[in-house]
Write a structure and sequence with these properties.
The protein has 2 domains: about 5-10 and about 295-460, MOFRL domain (glycerate kinase, domain 1), CATH 3.40.1480; about 25-160 and about 195-240 and about 275-290, Rossmann fold, CATH 3.40.50.10180. The longest helix has 18 residues, at about 5-20. The strands form 3 sheets. The chain has a 6-stranded parallel sheet with strand order 6-5-4-7-8-9, sandwiched between helices. It is globular. Helix 2 (about 25-30) packs parallel to helix 3 and helix 9 crosses helix 10 (about 260-270). By secondary structure, it is α/β, with parallel strands linked by helices. It has 16 helices and 15 strands.
């Protein structure tokens, strides 16, 4: 099998994984309407007893999920507003749902469901404006109304409502500091919830006493509901104390904006109410349902690999840690397959899911998947017919237009023949330009979904 054929096979397996977590199909699997009867998961709603249905949400898959929800609800949809990332507005969404909202929120078109673009991973003013519209909508909801909330990865940055006394600039500064430190998504979202007026169950508080049904496309390892998009409709398991400890752990207490430190100190003293917890009556009419996750994508990758004649297995969907350290472990598995045929004999494919982090020390450009691929390339150098593909399921890896990268046993040799030093690029966190020079970036464009990362380990 040629190098080109090996890469084509890896991309084929990746495509099968992404198809399995298509947000529109997921919404249709879990949400059905028959006349005046609406079923969401295992719960049925009598539409004749509802006055209004509002659709709100945020995330990179927001447009796709919203299109499916509007198609199901039809004329029963009262109004809706969903925030998504720039460039994701038309992914899976018909033109009738679209509004160019990169500028100030202006006159709406005739659609009852507005798709609004905003900044990610660092929130921006469009995110603030869009979230204000969401809050206005759910504030109208009464006891005889249903709020359908559509949540997917990226929702934490896209549903942005600074708590009283805080500004967007404050939240942007904290987000940048935590990202640069390599903070996990759980840590980042704990902080976000305690600087927000809508995260950590507070959307449910705003919507009460309406019924709330939340459909969730998970981008967090293990699918913890209170972490995905910072759990806007879920009881919060974290406290102001947890948020403070995270900042202390990264030595950020004296680096965050003074207003942020003051806000958290007030929370620690009980001067500011903490986020709503389990048992709060506001959650009595709230249902949360995960409709897509990393494990579904990973299992689909395994099945496709087997269809292509490969021995295949799912190693784990719980892989976390520093990208370059995880790369060493995964490269070690590839080396074992090459040396002994364990845990699978050739031709084989091992699928790994999860989400790594990068502690930024250099000035280069890249993302966690590209950095993982670069670090792995250095450990599998010289091996024959092996390949590692690392990819973000949303089509965006870090602040780049690439979803990830491909590395094989010849990557290092090809790089050095072009005067590229892999170790220097890795030290500078410049994996993007390294793989761009080799033509080994994985560029998919926005996929319309977001369920963490996938890494394929192939020995052919």
């Amino acid at each position: 099998m040629t190098d080109t054929e090996q890469r084509a096979m890896a991309r084929d397996i990746l495509s099968a994984a992404l198809r399995a977590v298509d947000p529109a199909e997921a919404v249709h699997r879990y949400m059905r309407r028959d006349g005046d009867h609406l079923r969401i998961g295992q719960k049925s709603y009598d539409l004749s007893s509802l006055d209004h249905i509002y659709v709100v949400g945020a995330g990179k898959a927001g447009a796709t999920m919203a299109a499916a929800a509007e198609a199901i609800l039809g004329e029963r949809l009262t109004a809706g507003w969903v925030n998504t990332k720039y460039g994701h507005r038309l992914v899976g969404a018909p033109l009738s749902l679209s509004q160019d909202s990169r500028t100030e929120v202006g006159d709406r078109d005739q659609s009852r469901l507005i798709i609004h673009e905003a900044g990610h991973p660092v929130p921006d003013n469009n995110g603030v404006q869009g979230t204000r519209e969401i809050i206005k909508l759910i504030a109208q909801a009464g006891e005889r109304d249903l709020v359908l909330c559509l949540i997917s990865g990226g929702g934490s940055a896209l549903m942005i409502a600074p708590a009283a006394g805080l500004t967007l600039t404050d939240k942007q500064a904290v987000t940048r500091l935590l990202l640069a430190c390599g903070a996990t998504i759980n840590e980042l979202n704990c902080i976000r919830k305690h600087l927000s007026a809508i995260k950590g169950g507070q959307l449910a508080r705003l919507a009460h006493p309406a019924q709330v049904a939340t459909l969730i496309l998970s981008d967090v390892v293990g699918n913890p509901l209170d972490v995905i998009a910072s759990g806007p409709t879920v009881p919060d398991t974290t406290t102001f104390g947890d948020a403070w400890k995270i900042l202390e752990g990264y030595d950020l207490i004296d680096k965050v904006p003074p207003a942020v430190r003051l806000h958290l100190e007030k929370g620690l003293k009980g001067e500011i109410a903490d986020t709503p917890k389990s048992g709060d009556p506001i959650f009595s009419r709230v249902d949360n349902l995960v409709i897509g996750s990393n494990d579904l994508a990973a299992q689909a990758a395994v099945e496709r690999a087997r269809q292509l004649g490969l021995h295949a297995m799912l190693l784990s969907t719980y892989v976390e840690g520093e990208a370059r350290e995880v790369a060493r472990v995964l490269a070690g598995i590839v080396r074992e397959m090459d040396a002994s045929g364990h845990p699978l004999p050739r031709p084989s494919c091992i699928v790994v899911g999860g989400e790594t982090t990068v502690t930024v020390r250099g000035t280069g450009l890249g993302g966690r998947n590209q950095e993982l691929a670069l670090a792995a390339a250095m450990k599998i150098a010289g091996l024959k017919d092996v390949l590692i593909l690392a990819c973000g399921s949303d089509g965006t890896d870090g602040p780049t237009d690439a979803a990830g990268a491909i590395a094989d046993g010849e990557t290092v040799a090809r790089a050095r023949s072009r005067g590229l030093d892999p170790a220097a690029y890795l030290a500078n966190n410049d994996s993007y330009h390294f793989f761009q020079a080799l033509g080994d970036l994985v560029v998919t464009g926005p996929t319309g979904t977001n369920v963490n990362d996938l890494t394929l380990l192939l020995a052919l």
